[in-house]
Amino acid sequence: MGVYQTKAFARFARKARLGNAALLEAARAVASGRWDADLGGGVFKQRIAREGGSKSGGFRTIIVFKAGGHSFFVHGFAKSDKANVTAKELRALKQLAVTFLSLDATALAKASSAGEITEVLSDDETA
């Protein structure tokens, strides 16, 4: 199954210099049950270390995932910016999860071609 990121998350990842390898590793960890927090409704928080640092002082990513389905990076923030998502943000993320987790192949291709999501590929893959 594929790993995708929203347009907003892609901007965050670029600014934070989070490479595809780190994102793919985080998505694999969630898919294998090694997440940092299950926020419910298919929403997971996963820490990613800063380059040359540890996970504890790094970045928090929000991944929407359902077993057997795709993973979607939808939100990211530095621990130094905020400790966690707010209750209001969590409600919105859960609604977003319902939308993303219900995408079929046609809708996924349409969202991708519109530039709303992009697939996260390993460094040796091409888009």
Task: Summarize the structure in short.
With 127 residues, the chain is of the alpha+beta class.
Brief descriptors of the model:
about 25% strand, globular, about 130 residues, 6 strands, alpha+beta, six-stranded mixed β-sheet
Our Rg estimate from Cα atoms comes to: 14 Å
**What share of residues is helical?**
25-40%
Write out the strand line-up for the largest beta sheet, numbering strands in chain order: 2-3-4-5-1-6
Shape: globular
Structure description:
This protein has 127 residues and is an alpha+beta fold. Helix content is 36%, strand content 25%. The chain contains four helices and six strands, in the order βααββββααβ. The chain has helices at residues 7-16, 20-31, 87-101, 105-113; strands at 3-6, 37-40, 43-48, 59-65, 71-78, 117-119. The chain has a six-stranded mixed beta sheet, sandwiched between helices.
Q: What does the secondary structure layout of this molecule look like, with pairings?
A:
Elements (H helix, E strand, L loop, with lengths): L2 E4 H10 L3 H12 L5 E4 L2 E6 L10 E7 L5 E8 L8 H15 L3 H9 L3 E3 L8
Parallel strand pairs: 1-5
Antiparallel strand pairs: 1-6, 2-3, 3-4, 4-5
